[in-house]
Design goal:
With 382 residues, this protein is α/β, with parallel strands linked by helices. It contains 16 helices and twelve strands. α2 links the parallel β1 and β2. It comes from Pseudothermotoga hypogea.
Amino acid sequence: MRRLCGVVLLIVAVVLLAQANIPIKVTLTMMVAGDQNMVDFFQYEIAPEFEKLYPNVKVKVVGTGPGDAGSQQIIQQLQLEKDSGKDKWAIDLVVIHEAGTIWGIERGLIRQYTDFLTTRRLVTMKTAEVALGVNVNGYVMPMFHSQTAIAYNPRFVKDPPKSYAELVEWVKKNPKRFGYNGIKGGMSGVSFVFGWVYWKSKNPDVLMNGPFDEKYMEDWPQIYAELKEFNKYVTLTAGNAGTLDALNRGEIWMGPVWVDMFYTWIREGRMDPNIRLILPEPGMPGQPMYFAIPTKAANADYALKLIEFVTSPAVHAKYIVDKFNWYPAIGVEYVTPHLGKEVFERLYRDIKEADLLKFGKRMPIADYRTRMLEAYERWVEK
């Protein structure tokens, strides 16, 4: 009898031990602002690889669209989670723009977490610390850095404008052959507008670095009046993808694009590979995309693991740089050992590293940024 009881107890112990070792099933829900390529990146590339590492995890990816509107949708959803009073929120991880990060911090919707992230020490750019002039240190890990530039078709544009000033003259001679999306449907158009204001402003460094003072906006009415005149000669496109599509079809010959989207379209056969890029003087802004963890994320531990996975040097090199043509969020020296020479030659084919350093600009600080967009709506769109 004692032997039978001992066997039963042993079986029970083994079962309990086995159950203790079975990981709890987890659905890691992430919301992603950005174009469709951002959603595809996580859904078809990162999620399957991450789920192999953690078989108990299922990654659910929800896209919210490009530009600030995409980040705004994420913030609205997080606000609903906060207002519900729940102890655990349904969203575990978000990928947002600089503006979305600031909104999240101001409203208490995202948490500090990077002290627990080992890859944070690999970041060399200041974008991990400051966004639009606001301290974001601890709240974000950059996913990548992206840059805007002017794409042009050399079949029609033999000598592309090398500056905003030359572009103004070019559009008058080639009406409707330059296209951009204004400030709707994506940040490529927004970046072009900011670059225009930097070019015309007497204080571009103040717009990028502060301080905020309305006296630095006194020349804006004339700046935007000239932009409205410029727009008479251009084609307004349907967004980031709309500009690329119009370029590929030959409807326009030039337009601002995101470098990563441009090269990805070429790689996928959606863009004429003969189309080239140029970064005009005095420059155009780029921006990072950020990983952030909601304040009461139910699965913050796995969110941290996913961020760590994407920003690890080998994975970052394979997907961020090689496959999706983004500029790395971590130091180049960490991804270089994992990349072939041809990858860098492709990524820096038209816009060299020296060009990026000289003409790649920051987005304006938050207060100027908001007013720049409002000024465009007030003085250019109407």
